[in-house]
Design brief:
Elements (H helix, E strand, L loop, with lengths): L1 E9 L2 E9 L4 E2 H12 L10 E2 L1 H10 L8 E10 L2 E10 L2 E9 L3 H10 L10 H9 L10
Antiparallel strand pairs: 1-2, 3-4, 5-6, 6-7
């Protein structure tokens, strides 16, 4: 499990930082102190010391404010204008979504890359927003649909 936290938006570009990486089975302490606080929802009651993946998914499915979503990513990385770029072929509950991103601490390099690859004016959304749109948690189409 990877959890990233939103930091800020600069010139329409979102900055995210890794919050945690974890594997199952996962300690209740990690769920209590890191996972559910990141979800910003009410914590379910945890009665065990360690939870399997299936137990965690069951908690998510039974939570009124969460949804379990299957995501499969096939990613291809490359460099453009000193930025780390990635093209992704993503399945969200079976719906195919194509993504592209550019990562750098230099905003101007990212802005130049967006222009150079012809993506100026295309809505910039993160995976969480895309997933919520695909599953209907947000009533808005995907970018420039």
């Amino acid at each position: 499990m990877d959890i990233k936290t939103y930091v800020q938006t600069v010139q329409g570009l979102e900055q995210w930082n890794p919050l945690m990486k974890g594997e199952f089975p996962m300690k209740a302490e990690v769920l209590r102190n890191e996972v559910f606080p990141a979800f910003q929802v009410k914590m379910p009651e945890l009665s065990k010391d360690v939870y399997t993946y299936d137990e965690f998914i069951s908690m998510v499915k039974n939570h009124p404010d969460l949804a379990a979503v299957r995501v499969h990513k096939q990613r291809f990385g490359f460099m453009v204008n000193n930025t780390i770029c990635e093209y992704g072929n993503v399945l969200i509950n079976g719906a195919r979504v194509f993504t592209i991103n550019s990562e750098s601490t230099e905003v101007e390099d990212i802005v130049k890359t967006i222009k150079d690859v012809g993506l100026e004016g295309v809505e910039n959304i993160n995976y969480l927003q895309a997933i919520k749109r695909v599953i209907g948690m947000i009533d808005k189409p995907l970018a420039n649909e």
